[in-house]
Specification:
- This protein has 17 helices and twelve strands.
- With 536 residues, the protein is of the alpha/beta class.
- The chain has three domains: 285 residues, Glycoside hydrolase 38, N terminal domain (7-stranded beta/alpha barrel), CATH 3.20.110; 69 residues, no CATH class; 108 residues, immunoglobulin/albumin-binding domain-like.
- The strands form three sheets. Strands 1, 2, 3, 4, 10 and 11 form a six-stranded parallel β-sheet that branches. The protein has a four-stranded mixed β-sheet with strand order 7-9-8-12. A two-stranded antiparallel sheet has the order 5-6.
- Helix 6 links the parallel strand 3 and strand 4.
- The protein is globular.
């Protein structure tokens, strides 16, 4: 039987206490309302209907920590109540469409007030065996470019620690941030700030932390050469590509993304799954992907001041001012057609195993109808004699034997590191490497209760500084000012806290500053940076 491994990657940067709108914690409320709770509905509905299914979903540790925070619960309820009031005010103008939104938000509020714990609800579904939850790096740091193995270890170890706290068990697999991978070799950063030295392959770090598998993008099976002219766009990329050995020639082996392999670059072999390019293109492509259908809800046009959306895409070429009103029943027709088409696409793929990873927020937030599409697809897969299964069960049934040395790369534009390392973001890496040098030069020497508190908060600020989101938002211009400000805030916090470690005692004002950071940037309460050093 052909098995489909849907993998949903859920992630947002740390937003609590760092702004509300247009950039800030409202992103978290939108994702919870439009994506996480609707997906919970889908999973519960399939389970109730007795349809055998298995879906793998990742909640990054930084996201799980926020969803468990009492500040999220209070703010999310207020957010939903405000949306309900806006929908009521829009009734005279938009009639049935305003009623549609009123019922939507009331339903989400009702469900959340019953559970009040999105992470806990996902944990229950995992315990029921219908979903599998993966971990990730603590704050979604871009692991291939971090300057120290200790940093990579810290990102992974705190991710595992957070997972065990929130989901009550050891994680089986990891979603590498941006599906980034780097093998073991003599590595140095592009800017020469750190000396060349032997680095661990990421599979080795994962194995040390008990991880049993990870994922990569399909182009790594063909040597990982950057797509297009990205190496010429920034000299640092060319430096990194050349020192990595210019990739690995694999095409002659005719490696298929529909098989499981073992990655090994220094003696440690760990299974990995590969993203299927065909199904990815069909769902993601702005030109031929399903979310661009004329009948679906237009994401970008919103009614002021409530931000509710009343228009359909109509045509990708039409200006926002020319969009037609949304018709939910028309969208339902498109959903049925697209679900049927996707299942026929799966049926036509020659491999018996298809791994289909997507950003979770596509389903519901960016593509409002996405959760219902996923529900229909899973049902139709079952009806067509195929199955959906979690990655751990797939691995049990298909143990790999072929060992590969993978090149480095990511699923980002161009397939290498360009999205995170370019002319606009190079300055962030200079600061990250400097902070890493300071942190790991001091961390093993700290003694005393107050100094330990400072070190733990310093570790949190370093992890937040390393978030790949800042470079992504700078490169894509989607929230550049916010990303640059956030990076600089965590850099300033790090540098000031670091200066505290050199003092015999702190003033009342300095203690107050430490307490303020401990309250605002309070993720990972059990953080232990000494563990990052244990096998350095």
């Amino acid at each position: 039987m052909k098995k489909i491994g849907f993998v949903l990657h859920s992630h947002l940067p740390y937003l609590l206490g760092h702004g509300t709108w247009p950039h800030g914690v409202e992103w978290l409320y939108e994702a919870a309302c439009e994506t996480y709770i609707p997906l919970l509905r889908v999973f519960k509905r399939l389970k109730k209907e007795g349809i055998p299914f298995g879906v793998t979903i990742n909640f990054t540790p930084v996201l799980s920590e926020q969803l468990k925070d009492e500040r999220f619960e209070k703010g999310f309820i207020e957010y939903l109540e405000s949306k309900i009031e806006f929908a009521k005010k829009d009734l005279p103008l938009f009639g049935e469409l305003a009623k549609f939104w009123l019922e939507f938000y009331e339903g989400v509020l009702r469900e959340f007030e019953e559970e009040r714990d999105i992470v806990g609800a996902m944990r229950e579904l995992q315990e029921d065996g219908v979903i599998e939850i993966l971990t990730s790096a603590a704050t979604h740091g871009y692991l291939p470019l971090l300057g120290f193995d200790e940093s990579v270890k810290g990102q992974v170890k705190e991710g595992v620690r957070s997972y065990k706290k929130n989901f009550g068990k050891e994680p089986s697999g990891i979603w590498p941030p941006e599906l980034g991978y780097r093998p073991s070799y003599i590595w140095a950063p592009h800017n020469g700030m750190l000396p060349p030295r032997k680095r661990k392959g990421l599979e080795e770090v994962y194995q040390e932390e008990g991880i049993k598998f990870f994922l990569v993008d399909a182009h790594l099976l063909k040597g990982g050469k950057p797509i297009g002219t990205y190496l010429s766009l920034f000299e640092g990329l060319k430096i990194l590509w050349e020192q990595s050995g210019r990739g690995i020639e694999m095409e002659e082996k005719e490696l298929s993304p529909y098989s499981i392999y073992l990655a090994s670059s220094d003696g440690i072999a760990l299974p990995f799954f590969t993203r299927d390019p065909e199904t990815a293109l069909q769902v993601w492509s702005k030109d031929c992907g399903y979310p661009g259908d004329a009948n679906y809800l237009e994401f970008h046009k919103k009614h002021f001041p409530g931000g509710l959306r009343y228009w359909r895409i109509t045509s990708p070429s039409r200006d926002l001012g020319e969009k037609d009103l949304y018709h939910p029943e028309w969208a339902e027709d498109s959903l049925r057609k697209h679900a049927e088409h996707f299942v026929s696409l799966l049926s036509g793929i020659k491999g018996e195993l298809v791994i289909a990873p997507y950003d979770t927020e596509l389903f519901g937030h960016w593509w409002f109808e996405g959760p219902e599409w996923l529900y229909l697809v899973i049902k139709k897969i079952h009806e067509h004699g195929m199955g959906t299964e979690t990655l751990s069960r797939i691995l049990e049934e298909n143990p790999p034997s072929l060992v590969l040395r993978l090149p480095e790369g990511s699923w980002g534009e161009g397939g290498f590191h360009w999205v995170w390392l370019n002319e606009w973001t190079e300055w962030t890496w200079r600061h990250i490497y400097e902070c890493e040098k300071k942190f790991f030069g001091m961390a093993g020497k700290i003694k005393g209760e107050l100094k330990e508190r400072i070190l733990k908060q310093l570790a949190r600020e370093l992890l937040l500084l390393q978030s790949s989101d800042w470079q992504f938002l700078i490169t894509t211009w989607s929230a550049r000012d916010y990303a640059e400000r956030r990076f600089c805030e965590h850099l300033e916090n790090f540098e000031r806290l670091y200066s505290f470690l050199e003092k015999e005692s702190l003033s009342a004002r300095e203690v107050s500053y430490l307490e303020e950071l401990e309250s605002r940037d309070s993720l990972f309460p059990d953080i232990n940076p000494h563990d990052w050093l244990s096998s350095a």
